[in-house]
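Structure tokens
________________
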Amino acid sequence: MAIDFEQFAERHDPNMRKDWTFRFKTNAGESLSSAVVDVVDSTSTDVDAATDLVIESTAFGQISPTVWGVTIWVSGGGASSVYYLRCRVETTSSPSRKTDKTMRLFCEEL
């Protein structure tokens, strides 16, 4: 059974450094307490230790009263490659909510 992933609307050029944002809906008054983004294998969602796509930094913040964004800065990658980026977040609610979102990123020289 194939896993269905959302994809980023734009493509990533391996020669550039670019930001990408995951969006998470939250309840009113709830915020994110942590966010971790990894490149993962598309069939197992295990971390891909051999990837050539580099996640340089991760930051998160409120976009609207009930939406939080996790922004990553990405560089590298191989032309004509597809990468799967998993963003794992935890909220400040009690008890905290934990959720993952995995997005597909196409890489090509633009």
